[in-house]
UniProtKB/TrEMBL annotation:
The keyword Metal-binding does not apply. The gene is LRRC52. PANTHER family: GH08155P, LEUCINE-RICH REPEAT-CONTAINING PROTEIN 52. One of its GO terms (biological process) is potassium ion transmembrane transport. This is Leucine rich repeat containing 52. It is found in: Cell membrane. SMART domains: LRRCT, LRRNT. Keywords: Cell membrane, Disulfide bond, Ion channel, Ion transport, Leucine-rich repeat, Membrane, Repeat, Signal, Transmembrane, Transmembrane helix, Transport. Its main location: membrane. It comes from Gallus gallus. Interacts with KCNMA1. It is a single-pass membrane protein. It holds the Pfam family LRR_1. One of its GO terms (cellular component) is plasma membrane. InterPro entries: Cys-rich_flank_reg_C, KCNMA1_auxiliary, Leu-rich_rpt, LRR_dom_sf, LRRNT.
């Protein structure tokens, strides 16, 4: 047998071994696995599954009862780019959860129990493009700088939550944002919300289901769409003065003028008195000098 023939089986074994090392053949119990993907949809999981291949890039945990995502276990999946956790029981303890999956591009946390989003929730996800946190009825607060690090974010959905307010800078500073879901929230359309509404009407971002992006409070603006709400708020949030206000301002102006005149008059009198007193003192000093000489 030639040396080439002798080493061919060994080369094949070596390549197979490398292939097994590159792709872990394990799969979580009850889940289905294929190349770089683990699908555990609707398996009634109570906890984050174990034995997930470390080279997994797509992990689907939709429609389970998972209430906690362990940051350590997630960090082992360093190549993960797609994570679907919709329809679970995830709560408000997600800060620093995704610190080890920095390659994540797609994240779906819709239909959960999120209550707030802080800067620490998604700040590690520098490559995030799609973020779905819709249908979280207990989500009532998104911090002003919550997405400050997610500059690649293109698709953001916060529809059907408990949000009543969103600072304009939270989304207007996202240079790649093209899609923003805001429908069926409890928007409180007051003067503080006017900046956000103005940004919406002037922005090139697409707002799906725009007919259902309406004011919830105050009662006078209930069910009003954002363009119409902007007109109402532009009018009501400007400073309007009544007749009594003008009279009061005129009275204050007169008082200030009169007080200034009186002060100037008193200052003038004091100056004259001082001048007269100084002149008399000089004359007395001159007379004393003359008497001393004679």
């Amino acid at each position: 047998m030639s040396p080439a023939g002798k080493w061919q089986p060994l080369s094949l074994v070596f390549l197979l071994g490398m292939g097994m090392a590159a792709g872990d053949s394990s799969c979580p119990s009850g889940c289905s696995c294929r190349y770089l993907e683990v699908n555990c949809t609707g398996r009634q999981l109570q906890e984050f599954p174990t034995a997930i291949p470390l080279d997994t890039r797509q992990l689907i945990l939709a429609a389970n009862n998972v209430s906690y995502l362990p940051a350590v276990e997630l960090s082992f999946l360093a190549d993960l780019v797609y994570l679907d956790c919709q329809k679970n029981l995830l709560g408000d303890d997600l800060d620093f959860t995704f610190i080890g999956v920095v390659k994540l591009v797609y994240l779906d946390l819709s239909f959960n129990n999120l209550t707030q989003v802080t800067f620490s929730t998604f700040s590690q996800l520098l490559s995030l493009v799609v973020l779905k946190i819709s249908d979280n009825p207990n989500l009532v607060a998104i911090e002003k700088d919550a997405f400050a690090n997610n500059t690649w974010l293109r698709h953001l959905d916060v529809s059907r939550t408990g949000l009543t307010f969103l600072d304009a800078s939270t989304v207007q500073d996202l240079p790649n944002l093209r899609f923003l879901g805001l429908s069926d929230n409890l928007w409180h359309c007051n003067c503080s919300f006017l900046d956000f509404i103005t940004w919406m009407t002037e922005s090139s971002v697409h707002f799906p289901d725009a007919d259902n992006i309406t004011c919830y409070t105050p009662e006078a603006l209930r069910a009003l769409k954002m363009p119409a709400a902007e007109v109402q708020l532009d009018s009501s949030c400007q400073t309007h003065l009544h007749k009594q206000d003008y009279i009061f301002l005129c009275f204050i102006g007169f008082c200030i003028f009169f007080a200034g005149t009186v002060v100037a008059w008193l200052a003038g009198i004091c100056a004259v008195i001082y001048q007269i007193h100084s002149s008399k003192q000089e004359e007395e000093e001159e007379e004393e000098e003359k008497d001393a000489v004679t």
